[in-house]
Amino acid sequence: MPHESLTLVLPAYNEEARLGPALDELFAWLHGPGRQALPLPVHVVVVDDGSSDGTADLVRARPEAAAGELELLPVPHGGKGAAVRAGMLHAAGDLVVFADADMATPPDQLVPLVAALETADAAYGSRIQPDGSDMRASQPAWRRALGRTFHLLASVWVVGPVQDTQCGFKGFRREAARDVFARQKITSIVFDVEVIFLVRRRGYAFRVVPIRWTDVRGSRMHPGFRLALRVAWDLFRTPLVHRDVRRARAGSPAA
Ligand SMILES: Nc1nc2c(ncn2[C@@H]2O[C@H](COP(=O)(O)OP(=O)(O)O)[C@@H](O)[C@H]2O)c(=O)[nH]1
Ligand SMILES: [Mg+2]
């Protein structure tokens, strides 16, 4: 059955500089070429993770908010994982996608992601292309090095076959989203890995979808010793936190 609606969740933390242009780009596409390319209503939810800048005011003042296409979901500051969880559980669409508030993934990439959800419960955007090239080449060298270290740690016992766990562009059928995000506990950037782990553990079908992506300046990530410790700890504990989670469906293919 074709899907009838989509909720797009955008976690935002102190994004007053980047969110305006990003929403301009998003709605220009949704109201323009997107009408044909993605013929289903899209509701956008910005989860404001306790920002101390003008993020919330910016969203409230948008014409799309008055038109009911854009919603602000304010939550107490809790990290990207907590904000995405709140948005995914709040979402009412048949399909639920989360994306970065800087539109690092252009809106037209919703088309292949949604197409993948015709045959899968979850679809993960991946910056690695079929020819082996990597969209993360637009990141600074130090970020790419951190990314490789992260993946090495994650692949020790959490990640399985997914090569680009940290792409902030992932979609789900609502039933799978409700089930997975109700169990999600990690609030740091490791939440992506946790979600991938939970999808496999619950036996949902997933697909990896190569997408376009560019590094947008003004990253909110502040790497340092504290974040490194947090990431290592969260990666270590993910399987332990979920050791009692069982498959949702008997007989579904192991991923
Ligand atoms: N809720 C929440 N979102 C965050 C936080 N840090 C980053 N984000 C969001 O995560 C997304 C990607 O962030 P960005 O800083 O561009 O990360 P990068 O592209 O990996 O450098 C954006 O939507 C940010 O607003 C945070 O502490 N809380
Ligand atoms: Mg970014």
Series of secondary-structure elements, N-terminal to C-terminal: EHHEHHEHEHEHEHHEH
Query: What is the percentage of strand-forming residues?
Result: 15-25%
Largest sheet: 7 strands, mixed
Count of all domains: 1
Spatial order of the strands forming the largest sheet: 3-2-1-4-6-5-7
Second-tier CATH architecture: Alpha-Beta Complex
- Number of alpha- plus pi-helical segments: 10
Q: Please give the radius of gyration in angstroms.
A: 17 Å
What ligand species are in this complex? Answer: guanosine-5'-diphosphate, magnesium ion
Which descriptors would you attach to this protein?
alpha/beta, seven-stranded mixed beta sheet, binds guanosine-5'-diphosphate, binds magnesium ion, 10 helices, 255 residues, Spore Coat Polysaccharide Biosynthesis Protein SpsA, Chain A
Walkthrough of the structure:
Helix content is 40%, strand content 15%. With 255 residues, the chain is an alpha/beta fold. The protein has one domain (6-241): Spore Coat Polysaccharide Biosynthesis Protein SpsA, Chain A. It has a seven-stranded mixed sheet with strand order 3-2-1-4-6-5-7, with helices on both faces. Helix 7 (141-157) packs parallel to helix 10 and helix 8 (174-183) packs across helix 9 (191-202). The protein is globular, with a radius of gyration of 17 Å. The protein starts with 5 loop residues before the first strand and ends in a 14-residue tail after the last helix. 40% of the residues are buried. Magnesium ion binds at residues 100, 102, 104, 216, 219.
